[in-house]
Task: inverse folding
């Protein structure tokens, strides 16, 4: 889905100088299923597309899926710190 320049610009603030946006996934969208393939590593399926992701993002994907699920954790009692 095409995104507005406002959304893209906001996302760029989180990137390093040599990084670029490849995919932006809306936060209300489930980011799964997430499978750990024996030779490829973590594989994320979104919209019928299977993408290999780095190990460091597995916990973020699982946390994002948990937030929108029925089993969501309570709010952080100490936000921002």
Result:
């Amino acid at each position: 889905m095409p995104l507005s320049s406002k959304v893209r610009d906001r996302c760029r603030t989180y990137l390093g100088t040599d990084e670029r946006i490849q995919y932006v996934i809306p936060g209300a969208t489930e980011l799964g299923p997430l499978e750990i393939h024996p030779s490829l590593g973590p594989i994320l399926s979104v919209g019928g597309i299977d993408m290999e992701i780095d190990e460091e993002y597995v916990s973020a994907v699982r946390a994002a899926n948990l937030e929108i699920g029925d089993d969501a954790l309570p709010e952080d009692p100490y936000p921002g710190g």
Observations:
- Helices lie at 5-12, 58-68.
